[in-house]
Design brief:
Distance between the termini of chain A: 22 Å
Radius of gyration of chain B: 35 Å
Number of domains of chain B: 3
Shape of chain B: elongated
Helix content of chain A: 55-70%
Shape of chain A: globular
Oligomer: heterodimer
Strand order of the largest sheet of chain A: 1-2
Distance between the termini of chain B: 88 Å
Order of helices and strands of chain A: HHHEEH
Helix content of chain B: over 70%
Number of strands of chain A: 2
Structural class of chain B: mainly alpha
């Protein structure tokens, strides 16, 4: 049973996918001081993935997020753990926050908190989860495996 | 005896207030010298016994670890440190019994020993924690100085401690593991299962008896009963063995029973005899084990029906065995005799019944000693069996170590005065009593001597008419085969436990998702619900919401009620999502934008993922009537609990909320104004790390479970 995707829906999703992913990154970056964070950001990206699957199937998903879910999961865990160890190396406790303040052109005063690295890990894992679940549960993906 | 008691305190984990308190008093010193003297000779012996076997390093390492644990056990002045070393001896014993790890029998014997002594160790730990909590300290010397008073809880605690000691020291009815442990190489048996590890339980009851007697008046009768039963059963079983090592093992069980009651009864006089007998036993039993090891090594068998005439081929071993055997049978002029006299002297004072039972056990001891000596060394080469291929008499550590131990026994047997002060001090340290016993070459004509001579004479007759004994043991064997044996009961207990585990997991882990959810929910509410009912339900005043909340609440309730009456899966999922959206909106109204945002996104994702799954399921569903009823009951129960619990917890708060502190610290500590995010990535960052790990694993699990199923379904269609 080959399904017939609606071209309008597919193009619409592809067009909005970019802004949605940007929004998800915004949530990730802003999360430390405003509503958002790695989890919420990752979920927005995840919803984008689900939408893409519904509109165009696995090919569309691949166009929008061209990564293997297992790679995202692993990378996320590595980033999160390394952040923890970085705090440890810097003399703090595991996962204790440190921060860097720089003045950048265009942005002005920017404060980067080490917890952002951890949040990035959370973000990647959540995106990886959405991607993995969609590929595993979507019928069409069954032939080429969960992680591909 | 100068510098005794010697105290040493080592900071272990200062941040947890864990200190390793060591205290060596004269009582511990008796055990320490046994551990050291037996240990040194057995190590020398083992070096020759194993020769250049590739596993000799493993063996030596494990034995050293064991020896260290044993030293720690007797030197520790802290209940929990004692327990730690106690368990360490269990583990090393497991490794040593299972030394021949290619043999199934050795592995199962090791497991048997580990399960029995490990299970007893758990009981011991529970008992120790109860005692330590009640006493307000875990320091043994402090507890002994001021023991907790009698109470129901202390009765249980001391029973648990006793259980731990009984299993460790192979007392009836847990003695079954010790003969099995003879699967260990002979040096390990000689060290662990005769001289040291099995004496850990005896050490403990001897150490703690004064405190136990304060709290439990049944302690002494229980110890005496267990000890005597073990003595008789062990002695009797020893008479029936044909394997020299098993004979010694059952003999050890019997002797351990005697030591157990002598040290555990809490009587200074018995303790005196017990300490002397402890040293005597370590000397002669380790010697005899090494003799058996040498015989096994040289003749290739330990079966006394096949051995004969070793007297001529192993003369040194013969004389060593005679000396050690005489000590075991408590023949006059040996140290075993002096020790047993001291013990009997104490028993005479406690009642004729007790000494009579001890005499019966002594008769059995004499009889199995004779069986051992005559079976191994008696007869001639020209027996009905061909002579064993015995090589030239070994002149090395295989001979020297047992000769050394036997010589020590002879010296202190002939001049008991040299060692007697040690036991005086030992008793004084453990019981705060003055000089109570005497250790002499010849006690003079006292009642105890009469009992000794009586048991020696009857034992000698039994040895002389050994065919009578054989017939009697066969006869009793016919009866006792029908009785549960220790080994058989253990096997049945383990099998019963496994089948119980099988059945209970079959019941709980049925593979049915609704049942899993029901069990999880019921267990989760069981305890707090009980507490709620017992504590009453203080329902506080509720903050009444505004119009917006009312509308949202109505929407949620409407969606939930509609959900109950739908039979279409897809509609049910959408309605569930509706409930979730409603709750998310409530969060937003109450000022939790983060929570609300996340809830909204999760609901969206879940509905979408559900939709993917639903394509593989029938469109509508109606569970069977019974299942439906059960689900309604569980759901109503959980709902009522959550409702009442929520009302109660709102009004029951006593401590300031933890969120105050988080709010206060969020910006200065973590440079974040969004406290929810700061909690996730900083304050509770480790939790989050755990959660995302679970997410990753669950995703991989779903992929691993679902993909093959879908694949095979596609291939079959």
């Amino acid at each position: 049973m080959k399904r017939r995707p609606s071209p309008i829906l597919e193009h619409g999703v592809v067009a909005t996918a970019g802004p949605m992913l940007v929004f998800s990154l915004y949530l990730l970056l802003a999360g430390h001081n405003q509503p958002g964070g790695g989890f919420a950001g990752g979920l927005v990206a995840g919803v984008t993935v689900v939408l893409a699957w519904a509109a165009g199937g696995p090919d569309t998903v691949r166009r929008i997020v061209p990564f293997r879910s297992s790679a995202l999961l692993g990378l996320g865990l590595i980033v999160a753990t390394l952040t923890g160890f970085a705090s440890l190396m810097a003399g703090g406790a595991f996962l204790e926050s440190g921060y860097l303040e720089r003045t950048l052109p265009l942005f002005g005063e920017v404060k980067v908190v080490s917890a952002l690295g951890f949040d990035l890990g959370v973000y990647l894992v959540v995106v990886g989860m959405s991607l993995g679940l969609v590929r595993a549960l979507g019928d069409e993906a069954a032939s080429d495996g969960a992680g591909s | 005896m100068d510098g005794i008691p010697y105290n040493e305190s080592i900071e272990w984990v200062p941040s947890l207030d864990l200190v390793l308190d060591l205290r060596v008093d004269a009582y511990a010193l008796v055990f320490l010298s046994v551990i050291a003297v037996a240990g040194i000779s057995i190590f020398l012996y083992a070096a020759r016994y194993f020769g250049s076997s590739p596993k000799v390093g493993t063996f030596a390492g494990t034995m050293t670890l064991f020896g260290g644990a044993m030293v720690g056990l007797v030197a520790a002045d802290h209940l929990l440190a004692t327990f730690l070393f106690w368990e360490l001896t269990t583990i090393t014993s497991y490794l040593l019994i299972g030394y021949s790890d290619q043999q199934e029998s050795a592995r199962s014997a090791a497991l048997h020993a580990a399960l029995v002594t490990g299970g007893g160790g758990l009981a011991l730990l529970a008992g120790m924690v109860m005692i330590g909590t009640e006493a307000g300290t875990f320091t043994i010397s402090t507890i002994l100085a001021d023991p907790p008073a009698a109470s129901a809880a202390m009765g249980v605690a001391w029973a648990l401690v006793l259980l731990g000691a009984v299993t460790k020291s192979a007392q009836f009815p847990f003695h079954g593991w010790l003969p099995g442990a003879m699967a260990a190489p002979t040096p390990a048996s000689a060290y662990l299962h005769s001289a040291t590890m099995v004496k850990a339980g005896i050490f403990l009851v001897g150490r703690l008896a004064p405190a136990a007697l304060v709290a439990a008046e049944w302690w002494r009768p229980a110890v005496l009963g267990i000890g005597f039963a073990t003595m008789i059963i062990g002695g009797w079983q020893a008479l029936r063995q044909n394997d020299l090592k098993l004979l010694l093992a059952y003999g050890t069980v019997s002797q351990l029973g005697f030591l157990f009651l002598l040290l555990g009864a809490g009587d200074p006089k018995l303790l005196y005899g017990g300490l002397a007998l402890l040293v005597a036993h370590a000397l002669f039993k380790a010697t005899l084990f090494m003799v058996v090891g040498t015989i096994d090594h040289e003749a290739g068998t330990r079966d006394l029906r096949r051995l004969s005439g070793l007297r001529t081929s192993l003369p040194a071993m013969f004389w060593v065995a005679v000396v050690a055997g005489a000590s075991m049978a408590a023949f006059p002029l040996t140290f075993g005799f002096a020790a047993k006299e001291a013990a009997f002297d104490g028993l005479v004072g406690l009642g004729t019944g007790l000494i009579a039972v001890a005499a019966v056990a002594s008769i059995l001891t004499v009889a199995y000693t004779g069986r051992f000596l005559i079976g191994a060394f008696g007869g001639h080469h020209a027996g009905h069996e061909p002579a064993m291929p015995v090589g030239p008499s070994p002149r090395n550590a295989l001979v020297r170590a047992p000769v050394f131990l036997a010589a020590v026994a002879v010296v202190i047997g002939l001049v008991p005065g040299v060692i007697a002060p040690v036991f005086d001090a030992g008793v004084a340290a453990a019981r705060e009593a003055g000089t109570v016993g005497k250790l002499v070459l010849w006690p003079g004509f006292v009642p105890a001597l009469g009992w000794s001579m009586f048991s020696l004479a009857v034992g000698a007759v039994l040895v002389w008419r050994s065919s009578l004994v054989g017939r009697a043991t066969d006869l009793v064997g016919l009866v006792s085969q029908r009785l549960p044996s220790a080994e058989g009961s253990f096997r049945r207990a383990v099998a019963g436990l496994l089948s119980f585990a099988d059945r209970s997991s079959g019941l709980i882990q049925s593979g049915s998702l609704p049942r899993y959810i029901a069990i999880i929910l019921l267990v989760a509410i069981a305890l707090p619900a009980t507490a709620l009912f017992r504590g009453g339900v203080p329902v506080g005043s509720l903050a009444v919401g505004g119009l917006l909340e009312a509308i949202l609440g109505l929407l949620i309730v409407a969606a939930a009620i509609t959900l109950l009456f739908t039979t279409r899966r897809f509609a049910a999922i959408l309605l569930l999502g509706g409930v979730g959206y409603g709750v998310a909106a409530l969060f937003a109204v109450y000022g939790g934008p983060d929570l609300s945002l996340t809830q909204l996104l999760v609901e969206t994702l879940v509905v979408a993922l559900f939709a993917l799954v639903l394509r593989h399921l029938p469109a509508s569903f109606t569970p069977p009537r019974f299942e439906r009823t059960m689900r309604i009951l569980v759901a109503v129960g959980v709902a009522v609990f959550v409702f009442v619990g929520g009302l109660t917890t709102i009004s029951a708060r006593q401590a300031p909320p933890v969120s105050d502190r988080y709010l206060e610290l969020s910006v200065p500590e973590a440079q974040g104004a969004n406290v929810v995010n700061v909690i996730l990535v900083d304050f509770r960052g480790l939790d989050t790390l755990g959660e995302i790990t679970v997410l990753a694993i669950a995703t991989l699990g779903v992929a691993a479970l679902v993909v093959p199923v879908l694949k095979s379904r596609r291939e079959s269609s």
